[in-house]
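Sample intake sheet
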Amino acid sequence: MAATRRTNKEAPARPQQRDARRRMIAGTIESLRIHGASATSVDRVLADTGAPRGSVYHHFPGGRTHLITDALTAAGGSMSEFIETITRENDPETALDMFVALWRRTLVDSDYRAGCPIFAVAVETNDDAPEFAASAAAVFARWNAALTDMLSRHGLDPVRSRRMATLTVAAVEGAIALCRVERAITPLEDTVHELQVQLTNAISASA
């Protein structure tokens, strides 16, 4: 009976524990978007999310490094699934428009404060946590693979497909950074216009 009472007492807490973990992951992603990895601390995430301090080492026994790594995995997975879907179901020009639309909304809705959490980690050294760079590299590789496959299906040779995929990711991520410092959407609009020209010309030349 004692064991039964203990189980019954614990059961209602589990949804709350899962909710605390989700809130901390979401709060960490948002902090990475705005502040970067170096300024994302456990204290900041707790203050922003209202999650109980005791939940940190329950869900993230590795502390800050564990928390940020899990946040990168969550953000990278969600964004990668989106990119894989739009590149599988659309032509390159449409897929690029949809990809850029996501960042346009993010920038404008956040008043140019929020960028890409993966890029935010990639541009920092993080010598004390090399797993951050490894996580970011894995996400970018997944994006490049999806874009490369799409371009190959539309007639580009494998080498050109890979190069155009790299150019697209690098150009859009760089444009997002410029938008944030200039507090304007123009760098992203200029970049997508030129990328669309490059894509159209490359696909036409391969036909």
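Comment: The first helix runs from residue 2 to 10. Residues 34 and 110 are 9 Å apart (CA to CA).
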